[in-house]
Amino acid sequence: MQKKKFTVLFVSTSYPADNKDWRGRFTANTVAAISHNDCIRLNIWAPPGDLPENVKDTSIATEAEWLKQLMVQGGIAHLLRSRGPFAADTVFKLLLYLKRLYKREKNIDVAHINWLQNAIPLWHSTTPTVISVLGSDLGFLKFPGMKFFLRHVIRKRKCIIAPNADWMVSELQPVFGDIAEIRSVPFGVDKMWFNIKRKPINREKNKWLVITRLTQKKIGTLFEWGKHLFKNSFELHLFGPMQENLQVPNWIVYHGPVSPDDLHAKWFPTSSGLITLSLHDEGRPQVMLEAMAAGLPVIASPLKAHIDIIDDKQTGCIVSTPKELEQALIFLSNPITNNNIGENAKRWIVKNIGTWDDCATRYINIYQTLMSELI
User: Across-strand partners of 242?
Assistant: First the structure.
């Protein structure tokens, strides 16, 4: 018996322009994986980029151009963090465009909205909705009126709120648990990361990677803690776009933005591991998942998002002081220890995260739950 097709409207303000664009890569991977399912008609509203052939772009020309410029400016979350109240005009424009989108896209069965604020213009509809939530969304909930407006929107429909990490469930449950189901949906990892064959690390010259947007909170304590560590046996390579005016110390090799292909072919196979001392509102950092899938140990700050992934001294190291960072670097400079920790990390990703196809299956199960509750 052939399954009945249903139409999903997928909304995101982040999407890569092409295969070499690092921005919004997780969105493209999610869309591609969901589009493989024969029972889904997938419509998307997102910045312009390469879409799968069977995915329909629902943006009109003015919206597409505006979304493109929004990506150039770093995205809505970056603008809110950097400009604060001065980003109000951008927020208003986004909500206006979304309101028009939701009014004209009437023949849909399920709305899949990325980020809580993008659900607010659903005010006048009752469409069943899944809302994907990242770590930055928890910061948005602190804005005046945000909880009130979202609760009004959510209670009018069948809704599942889907944070991409388990630790966020307990944060969202007291706010929305009485009117929506809170169900963790981890993002997946591209299969190419699992296939990396790491070369034995050079004990005399450990090469560590930091891959992040360059903001003060994303860098965290790295510049302060690392200045006396990375000079002889350890070298540090920093990758990512400069989003704030930071002075990169001369003991760091700064490369600028990097493509996934370069990380896969050149950097991940030959490096000792990944470091993130971020103080940012993280949900579940995708680059950490990819590094772990490739068998790389990760040294990370004690954020909830990091502790949720890393079992200290088993799948990586959690560090809270400069001394602990030094000890972690020495601990993982042993090739056997480094390899064992990396393999433990890969096994954890296989068991708990899986591929983007696994992620798509989790979302499709949510769509089907929302649809079945209407029958």
Answer: 214
* Distances from the Cα of 23 to the Cα of 36, 37, 142, 249, 363, angstroms: 22, 25, 26, 25, 22
3-class secondary-structure state, position 105: coil
How far is it, in rounded angstroms, from Cα 313 to Cα 324? Answer: 12
Residue 342 per-residue DSSP state: H
Count CB atoms within 10 A of the CB of residue 154.
Answer: 21
Who contacts 80 (Cβ-Cβ below 8 Å, separation ≥6)? 87, 91, 140
Query: 313 Cβ partners below 8 Å, 6+ apart?
Result: 331, 341
pLDDT tens digit sequence for 11-43: 999 999 887 777 888 999 999 999 999 899 999
Q: Where are the beta strands (DSSP E) in the chain?
A: 6-11, 40-45, 55-57, 110-114, 129-133, 159-163, 181-182, 206-211, 234-239, 252-256, 273-276, 298-300, 317-318
How far from 315 is each of 122, 162, 264, 344, CA to CA, in Å? 41, 25, 20, 5
Q: Tell me how long the chain is.
A: 375
User: Nearest 5°: phi and psi at 237?
Assistant: -115, 125
pTM: 0.87
For residue 21, what are the contacts with CB-CB under 8 A and spacing of at least 6? 49
Cβ partners under 8 Å of residue 346, min gap 6: 194, 292, 293, 294, 295
C-alpha triplet 271, 276, 280: angle, nearest 5°? 155
Q: Which domains does the chain have, with CATH numbers?
A: 6-188+355-372 (3.40.50.2000), 191-352 (3.40.50.2000)
For 74, the token pair is 């770093």
Beta carbons within 8 Å of 39's beta carbon, 6+ residues apart: 3, 4, 5, 6, 364
Q: What is the pLDDT of residues 103-145, one digit of tens each?
A: 999 889 999 999 998 999 998 899 999 999 987 788 788 888 8
How far, CA to CA in Å, does 321 sit from each of 180, 277, 305? 40, 10, 18
